[in-house]
């Protein structure tokens, strides 16, 4: 009986040992994939910072101005004039304050149970 138990325990130990080694190799593989991804992210961040630096250089007015001057006639562009933006006089004025007496009478008629919309509809002949 004890002999059978020892054999079962030995086989169980061997299977558990194989499982632990498989788990170890799986974890090592995952760690190497993680390291490769981190290296790729670092590389892409470096490329992104390079592209941002290129954009900053290419967007400077000193870089753009010669290009604009060279193609000014073909593009039919000219410097912006202040008149293009309009004037303060063209802005609309603020609306007048609401008629508080009319609003008060509306609320009073609603409180009294009179519906002003029905009164308007009756005057128009719509019911």
Tell the overall outline: flat
Helical content class: over 70%
Total separate domains:
2
Indicate the low-confidence ranges by residue numbers: none
Oligomer: single chain
Radius of gyration: 41 Å
Q: What structural class is derived from the secondary structure elements?
A: mainly alpha
Can you lay out the helices and strands and say which pair or pack?
Blueprint: H1 2-58, H2 61-70, H3 72-75, H4 100-111, H5 116-124
Q: How would you describe what is shown here?
A:
The model has no long low-confidence stretch (mean pLDDT 88). The protein is built from five helices and no strands. It is mainly α and 127 residues long. It has helices at 2-58, 61-70, 72-75, 100-111, 116-124. The longest helix is centred in the first third of the chain and has 57 residues, at 2-58. It has two domains: 1-79; 98-127, no CATH class.
Write out key terms for the chains shown:
single chain, 127 residues, mainly alpha, 2 domains, 5 helices
Summary, kept brief:
This protein has about 130 residues and is mainly α. It contains five helices and no strands.
């Amino acid at each position: 009986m004890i002999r059978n138990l020892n054999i079962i325990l030995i086989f169980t130990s061997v299977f558990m040992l194989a499982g632990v080694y498989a788990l170890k190799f799986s974890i090592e593989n995952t760690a190497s994939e993680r390291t490769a991804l981190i290296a790729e992210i670092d590389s892409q961040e470096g490329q992104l910072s390079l592209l941002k630096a290129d954009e900053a250089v290419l967007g400077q007015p000193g870089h753009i101005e010669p290009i604009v001057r060279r193609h000014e006639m073909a593009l039919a562009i000219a410097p912006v004039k202040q008149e293009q933006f309009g004037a303060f006089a063209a802005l609309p004025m603020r609306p007048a304050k609401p008629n508080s007496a009319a609003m008060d009478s509306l609320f009073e008629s609603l409180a009294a149970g009179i519906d002003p919309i029905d009164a308007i509809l009756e005057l128009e002949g719509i019911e």
